[in-house]
Amino acid sequence: MSGACLPERYAKDCHAVECPIGIRKWNEMNTTIQKIHAREILDSRGNPTVEVDILLNDGTRARAAVPTGASTGIHEAVELRDRDPKRFGGKGVLTAVANVNTIIAPALIGLDASEQELIDRMMIRFDGTSNKARLGANAILGVSMAVARATASSRHMPLYEYLSDDHQYLLPVPMMNVLNGGVHAQWQGADFQEYMIAPFGAPDFRTALQWGAETYHALQEILKKKNYPTAIGDEGGFAPKVVSNEEPLELITRAIEHAGYRPGTDIGISLDPASSGFCHDGRYELKREGKTLLPAELTAYYRRLVDTYPIISIEDGLAEDDWAGWKLLTKELGTRIELIGDDIFVTSPELVKRGISEKAANSVLIKLNQIGTVTETIATIDLAKSAGWGVNVSHRSGETIDSFISDFTVATSAGKLKTGATCRGERVEKYNQLMRIEEELGSRAVYAGRKAFVR
User: Fold this and answer.
1) Whole-model pTM?
2) Catalytic residue (choose from 40, 51, 235, 426)
């Protein structure tokens, strides 16, 4: 793609983002950005987050809301918070909102919204830091998502179609968080943060969702019979005070069977221990079981669980900086199950490159707000796929009803989407959008199923 550079007021940014790769001349096209406006809204935990509206020349309006995380990796792009103790306990995002309205918006007005890569690169340049700490990843991502949605709408295209390079669409296996522990359960239950079910044996997405919902309700019945509370955590999963980290696996396996399905054939189990949360000085403290384990011992612990239960993947089995431990885990279990890196990679192409080179993990978790732009997120997905790795798009624990990730997952053929239980409106909306997409695609809709898992 070639073309002339922008007017003088954009010249410095033109050079910064390598003009020849995709900058078109100043224009009055229908997709020219006329207005960008950000505001502070609340996420599903009642904490502030950023929402961005965009208006194009042809009258198209679009909106995007940014999710927020509770269990965050230290290498993630910065979610800018005000730190004003008088507002929302310091969690306000008025600074990020102001950065959109006073810095980003004036610079982008007049540009063609269809130039996604250019716009994302310009915002990265405006920020000028390696982790988006100046403007905030929450400010930048809100604009990036809104720009993509506005262009799709202006072209009268579904978002998944606009975002797709090859128009080969894959409906993902839903990775449903049905039981919580760790920080998502205020450390009152299991040490492991998430226990998920994956209905990979279903013939299509709608059926997979049905199987997952039925298993979720079967689990609720089993918990009630054990006199466990059925209050739910941030992502819709139950949060009982279990006696061990293994008990949830027993309960979920029973729930799958109680719902009428075959563990390991129809529905598998995925773990997200989020082990950075219980790693201290290179040792892993499983307080629920009174154990402190070295990386090799924790790897052996996981191996025993994999031998016993229908586990198909483990996310963040070791801590974000335990590269030696990750390599050992991959050597021991990487030919049997999918080993997903979240905190260790934080959707960063550079960190994923290192993981591929060092054979640490064989799959990556993808979170748009970990890296901060649509362009960079797609680049990370492409890199993982080129290495034969698995790809898992994910929500955050603090969500909104924005279903961007549903379209995004279908468009990128990621194969798996982690977006919570079939409970809570902000989670269910993602699933509902996927059913709409499947219906719209008709015979072109392909369900990822078992093939979505690299092992």
Assistant:
1) 0.92
2) 235
